[in-house]
Q: What sequence folds into this?
């Protein structure tokens, strides 16, 4: 949406394609979007690539013949038959329907992006008959809905990750978070730990981690991960995160360190086993990881599983259980 806003504000024509319905197996879920500029530049994805190529070709060379000269949104469907599925690389039985919007209003895009960057959810409604668009701020996440005439699509801020502690593991985890669409912030008040930080695209803050968590205002699209191994940095930050809306709060460490952490919180901060039930540690999914890069894969996999509301994994995938076989009995 940022790119589309910039293109339109600079005078470029552009098309926005949104996946509005799917049947069977589909490469991208409803709500996925692709923007194509009038010079062939594109951003986003609605499939594995073949549908993007077809949309690009039609938009640049065949729009008058394929979609007419109307500026009203158009509905197109891919994968209706086996020939289409093969041609466009769709899974067996997969069909997806797209709504194509031509030259979205630049003022509307500016308001949309500004609202999302302000940390708010916004519902974008598009009427197919004439392309009329309305924007309404909302507090409630909602699935995309489309009845063939009206599209309602709720958009919101990036998922965010706050990492406590800078180091090699933090750098690997931040890298994975970035390419999974998270906005990443690293917090570490220790200047010597930040001196070797080299990853671009990550916000860095240097206040005490508990203050950083408060300023971060974690919500249901936020995860907080403590990787410093220093209780003076981790404990208070984790407590602040636990009493926020963060969907995931966890800390690196052994089973013994994780147990000691909970004991400290119960003894000194009036917490209880119940209030600490959502504190994860040792974090990660058991994959036999030993190196920082492998541990980062393990941690990122667990975060994504929680984010995507995946079914609970068997205990054999628990780091704590696998490091203590008696827990499996």
A:
């Amino acid at each position: 949406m940022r790119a589309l806003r910039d293109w339109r504000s600079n005078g470029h024509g552009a098309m926005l394609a949104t996946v509005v319905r799917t049947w069977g197996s589909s490469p991208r879920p409803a709500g996925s979007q692709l923007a194509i500029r009038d010079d062939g530049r594109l951003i986003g994805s609605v499939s594995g690539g073949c549908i993007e190529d077809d949309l690009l070709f039609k938009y640049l060379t065949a729009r008058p013949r394929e979609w007419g000269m109307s500026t009203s949104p158009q509905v197109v469907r891919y994968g209706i038959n086996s020939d289409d599925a093969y041609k466009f690389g769709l899974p067996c039985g997969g069909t997806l329907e797209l709504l194509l919007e031509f030259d979205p209003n630049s003022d509307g895009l500016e308001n949309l992006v500004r609202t999302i960057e302000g940390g708010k959810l916004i519902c974008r409604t598009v009427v197919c008959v004439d392309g009329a668009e309305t924007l309404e701020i909302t507090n409630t996440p909602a699935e995309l809905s489309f009845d063939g005439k009206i599209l309602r699509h709720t958009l919101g801020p990036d998922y965010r990750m706050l990492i406590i502690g800078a180091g090699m593991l933090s750098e690997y985890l931040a890298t994975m978070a970035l390419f999974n669409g998270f906005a990443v912030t690293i917090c570490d008040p220790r200047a010597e730990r930040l001196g070797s930080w080299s990853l671009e695209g990550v916000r860095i803050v240097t206040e005490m981690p508990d203050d950083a968590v408060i300023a971060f205002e974690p919500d249901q699209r936020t995860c907080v991960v403590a990787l410093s191994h220093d209780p003076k940095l981790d404990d208070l930050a984790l407590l602040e995160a636990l009493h926020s809306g963060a969907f995931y709060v966890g800390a690196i460490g052994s089973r013994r360190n994780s147990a000691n952490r909970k004991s400290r919180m119960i003894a000194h901060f009036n917490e209880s086993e119940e209030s600490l039930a959502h504190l994860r540690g040792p974090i990660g999914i058991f994959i036999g990881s030993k190196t920082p890069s492998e541990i980062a894969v393990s941690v990122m996999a667990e975060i994504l599983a929680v984010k995507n509301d995946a079914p609970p994994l068997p205990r054999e995938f628990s780091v704590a259980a696998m490091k203590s076989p008696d827990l499996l009995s």
